């Protein structure tokens, strides 16, 4: 009995040491991976990297990690603006808040210089102040003496965006709230007015839609993930992304 007790104690101690070694190793790997992602994506700050699954060391031995989660606080995505658009004041980048991605089946090279995930899904938020940059927020003439502009974007409820349109006429100015749908088309987030106020329709639907309807390209996301879906939320539009054979580093 004494020998069995000693054996059990030894097994418990060794098991504890293995767990400690495993957690130390995963912490080191997370820090190294975070630095690699920061360098590869040219980020302003170091992202959060969390390697899931236990034990970590057996995953390393197999050459593939089951699940890696990455969080980036502020990411500057490409807007796809050409030279003419940039000269006209269209921003080259758009800020994405709290980009979180879940990478599955992450294989890596022997020297850990590169890593690729079989698949990836994630979420992020584009603030209304950022999306407003894509709208015509400067007064634009739609008829002689009549101008329109987007003055504000906010949550309209039920997945809709409320687009506040200011119409200025010789008789004065008035702001009209317009509920709009938001969808993903390729690499762009598109905003389309559902119903226009009667005054706006009377003025001419097509002309006013050149103000109310707009799109924002969001390209070159981390690892090559792509836009999947979008919906309006309290603090901005929430987007989901997905991808396959996503490069994390190298």
Say how many strands there are: 12
Distance N to C terminus:
55 Å
Report the C-alpha radius of gyration, rounded.
25 Å
Categorize the overall geometry.
elongated
Average pLDDT figure: 82
Contiguous low-pLDDT stretches (5 residues minimum) are 2-18
SSE-based structural type: alpha+beta
The residue fraction in helices comes out at 25-40%
Could you give the order of strands across the largest sheet?
1-2-3-4-12-11
Number of helices: 6
Percent range for β-strand residues? over 45%
Series of secondary-structure elements, N-terminal to C-terminal:
HEHEHEEHEEEEEHHEEE
Q: Tell me about the biggest sheet?
A: 6 strands, antiparallel
SSE topology:
Blueprint lengths: L1 H40 L6 E5 L3 H7 L1 E15 L4 H5 L5 E16 L6 E13 H4 L8 E4 L2 E12 L2 E10 L2 E14 L2 E6 L4 H6 L1 H8 L1 E4 L8 E7 L3 E14 L1
Antiparallel strand pairs: 1-2, 2-3, 3-4, 4-12, 5-6, 6-7, 7-8, 8-9, 9-10, 11-12
Describe the structure.
The longest helix has 40 residues. Strand 6 and strand 7 form a beta hairpin. This protein is of the alpha+beta class and 250 residues long. The protein is elongated. It has a domain of 116 residues. The strands form two sheets. It has a six-stranded antiparallel β-sheet.
What are the salient characteristics of this protein?
250 residues; alpha+beta; six-stranded antiparallel sheet; elongated; DUF2993 domain-containing protein; DUF2993
Sum this structure up briefly.
The chain is built from six helices and twelve strands. The protein has 250 residues and is of the alpha+beta class.
